[in-house]
Amino acid sequence: MSAADYLPERRTLPVLREAVQRCHGCDLYKYATRAVFGEGPKSSGILFVGEQPGDEEDRAGHPFVGPSGKLFNRALEEAGIDRTEIFVTNAVKHFKFEERGKRRLHKKPSAGETSACRPWLEAEIEVVKPEVLVALGATAALSVFGRAYRVTQERGKFVEHPWAKHATSTVHPSSILRAPDEDQRHLEYHRFVEDLVRIRSIR
Fold first, then answer.
1. Range of the domain at 55
2. What is the pLDDT of residue 145?
3. In 45-189, at which residue ranges do the beta strands (DSSP E only) sit?
C-alpha cells in the first residue's frame, strides 16, 4: 500500500497526526520510534519543510528539537520570525538511520522514500494553506519542486507554486553545523539568517 492509502477522508492536523502513525507506505516505519508530524498553527503564513526527523526528534515526537532545530530557532529569532507562528515539518516523517554502536546516525532518505511520504506533506500543506513555502535542503526541495530543482542554483529565489503563492528554498540548518571550520559556519549561518529575513519580508 502507498502512503496515500493511509490518508483519512477527514483532514485536520490532529486527524492527520494520528493517521500517519499507521502508515506503512515505505519500510522506514519498521525501525523508527514513531512518525514525526509537523507542528504549528493551522493559520501559519510560512511553512518550512525539512528533510526528516533526527535522533532527538524521533525520540521526542516533535520536529526540529535537536541540534539543527536549536540553530534554526536562533536564526529565526535573529531574522524576526516567531517560531510559534510558523509551521515546521519534514518531507519524510520517519527517522532513517544506521547504527554505530549505541548511536543512531542520520542516513539520507532515498528518492523513493521521499516520494512515498509526499502525500502526507501535501495533506499538511492543504490544511495549513501557507502563503510562503520554504524547502530546507535538497531532500525537501526534491519533494516540493521535483528532481530538476537545485538548491545551489535556486536558493532564495521566489516562485509561484501550486501549494503556495510564494515558494523558495535555502539550506538545511544541519549543513551549517557540518561546515568544516568556525569561520565557514559563521559565514553560512549569516547567509541563512539573510535568507530568513527575505522570507519574512515577502509576506
1. 3-202
2. 98
3. 46-50, 87-90, 97-100, 103-106, 132-136, 159-161, 164-170
pLDDT at 102: 87
Would you say 197 and 158 are in contact if contact means Cβ atoms under 8 Å apart? Answer: no
pLDDT at 84: 96
CATH, residue 104 = 3.40.470.10
161 forms beta bridges with 164
Q: Is a pLDDT exceeding 90 seen at residue 1?
A: no
Cell of 68: 539543527
- Count of the separate structural domains present in the chain: 1
d(CA 95, CA 107): 8
pLDDT surpasses 90 at 203: no
Which of 110, 44, 51 is CA-nearest to residue 82?
Answer: 44
Indicate the residue type of 23: C
C-alpha cell of residue 55 = 535522533
pLDDT tens-place string over residues 45-93 = 999 999 999 999 999 999 999 999 999 999 999 999 999 999 999 999 9
Radius of gyration of the chain (CA): 16
Query: Is residue 39 within 8 Å of 88, Cβ to Cβ?
Result: yes
CA-wise closest residue to 136 among 166, 168, 92, 172: 172
